[in-house]
Amino acid sequence: MATREALWNYRNEFGDAFGRTYFRRFGPGVISSVGLGTYLGAPTNAVDDAYREAIGLALRSGVNVVDTAVNYRCGRSERVVGEAIRDSPIDRDAVVVATKGGFLPFDGDRPDDPASYVREAFVEPGIVDVDDLVGGSHCLAPEYVEWSLDRSLDRLGLDTIDCYYLHNPETQRAVRSREEVYDAIEAAFERLERRRLAGDIGRYGVATWDAFRVPEDDDRFLSLPEILARAEAAGRSVGPADGHGFEAIQLPFNVAMADAFTRANHRPASSTPDARDGSVDESTPVSTLEFAHDAGLSVFTSASIAQGDLAVPGAIPDGVDAELSGGTPAQRALNFARSAPGVTCSLVGASDVAHVRENVAAGTFDPLGAGAFDAVFE
Ligand SMILES: NC(=O)c1ccc[n+]([C@@H]2O[C@H](COP(=O)([O-])OP(=O)(O)OC[C@H]3O[C@@H](n4cnc5c(N)ncnc54)[C@H](OP(=O)(O)O)[C@@H]3O)[C@@H](O)[C@H]2O)c1
Asked: Could you report the per-residue pLDDT of 151-180, keeping only the tens digit for each?
C-alpha cells in the first residue's frame, strides 16, 4: 500500500526534474500528475513485454501512478502491472496502483464464443446472476464486485490496491432506472468500505466514460453529488472513523473532450437528503471539475491524448496549441489535461518506451495557470 513516507521519498527523489506542481496531493501523500494507463493493445505476449518495459521505465523516471482494470487486455494488463512493480527497484509503497471492477474479465485471451464463456465461467458457477448482467458483460452486484476485487488482487499479486474504481457504472442505465443504479452503487460502496477496513484497498472511486460529462437529461448521466451522497451513506452504515473512502473519479478529458470543465451538469444540492426524496433539485449546476474540487475529490483524466489522436501534428487546433506548453503535440495535449483546475493526474496509455519518455518529459514543463487555462476557451 502506498504510504505517506514512501510517496514523499519518491517526490523528493524525482521532484527537482519536473515543473511546477508536477507532484500533487493524493491519498496519504503526493503523486505524479502524469500517470500510466494500460487499456489499449492486443492480448498478446509481445504487448505484455512492451508494457512490462514501459511500466518499469515510467516508475524509474518519475511516474508513480499506474492505472489498470480487471478486464484490460483480457486480464493481462493487471498481471503485467504486478510483475513490473515487483521487478522494479522502486519501493512498492511509493506507487499508487489503481484498478477497476464492473466488466466481466476474460482470462488471458478473447474466447471464440464470449457468450458461452460468460455462461460457463460466471453464470453457471453462481459468480454472476444473469438478471444482474447488462449487455452480457457488465455487473455491479456487490457480491460480484467483491469477487472481481479478489481477482484483481490475485492477478496483480499485490496485498493492497491503492484505489479501486467501479468501472463505467452508467453501463447499467441500459436496463435500470437512475435510482436503481445509485442503489447498486451504494450497495457496492458498502462492500468497498468493508474491504477498506480490512486493508485490501486504500480508497475507492468511480471511473466513467459518459456518466459525468453528458448533459443531465442524457440517459447515461449520473450525478456526482448523488454518488458522493451514496458514499456518505455507505460510510454511515459501515462506520469507518474517517467517514468514507470515496476519494477519486476518473473521466475522459482532453482538448477534444473538455466537457468536465465546460459543461455545468452537477447540482450540489442533490447531495442533501431532501433532494433524494424525488423532489426537483433547483440548485445551480456546476462542472464535474468544480464539484469534485469543492468536494475534495481527486480527478484522474483518461484518454488524455484522445487515444493517440492528439499526438498527430495539426490535431490540436492552432489557437489552442499556441497556448500550451510542451515540445511535441503529445506533450502539449497531456499538459492541457493536467493543467485543468481540479485535475490531480492525467493518465496516458503507453506501451512504447519512446512514448513513455516523451510523456514523462511533458512534466518538465509548467502547467498553465488557471487564468491561462480559461483563456484557451476564449
Ligand atoms: N472508462 C474508463 O475507466 C477508462 C476509459 C479509457 C481509458 N481509461 C484509462 O485511462 C488511460 C489513458 O487512456 P487511453 O489509454 O484510452 O488513451 P490515451 O492515453 O489518450 O492514448 C493512449 C494511446 O496513445 C498512444 N501514445 C501514448 N503516448 C504517445 C505519444 N507520446 N505519441 C504518440 N502516441 C502515443 C499509445 O500508444 P502505445 O501503446 O504504442 O505507446 C496508445 O495507443 C487508459 O490506459 C486507462 O488506464 C479508463
From this structure: 999 999 999 999 999 999 999 999 999 999
Cell numbers given for 172: 447499467
Distance CA 118, CA 33 (A): 37
Q: Which residues contact 362 (CB under 8 A, 6 or more apart)?
A: 34, 326, 330, 331, 332, 334, 335, 338
Nearest CA among 230, 224, 362, 231 for reference residue 289: 224
Q: C-alpha angle 220/224/225, rounded to 5°?
A: 135
Residues pairing with 287 in the sheet:
264
Phi first, then psi, for residue 345 (nearest 5°) are: -150, 135
* Ligand 1: centre distance to CA 239 (Å): 37
What is the phi/psi pair of residue 261, to 5°? -100, -35
Full-model pTM: 0.97
Using CA positions, which residue lies closest to atom 29 of ligand 1? 355
In the chain, the number of structural domains is 1
Which residue type is seen at 53?
E
Is the separation of the CB atoms in 220 and 173 below 8 Å?
Answer: yes
Identify the CATH number of the domain in which residue 370 sits: 3.20.20.100
Pocket test for ligand 1, best of 34, 36, 40 (most atoms within 8 A of CB): 40
Give residue 79's domain range: 4-376
The string of pLDDT tens digits covering residues 259-278 is: 999 999 999 975 444 445 55
C-alpha cell at 43: 492480448
DSSP state of 296: T
Percent above pLDDT 70 for the chain: 97
- Cβ of 71 closer than 6 Å to ligand 1, yes or no, is no
Answer yes or no: is the C-beta of 306 below 6 A from any ligand 1 atom: yes
What is the C-alpha R_g of the chain? Answer: 20
Ligand 1, closest atom to CA 308?
24
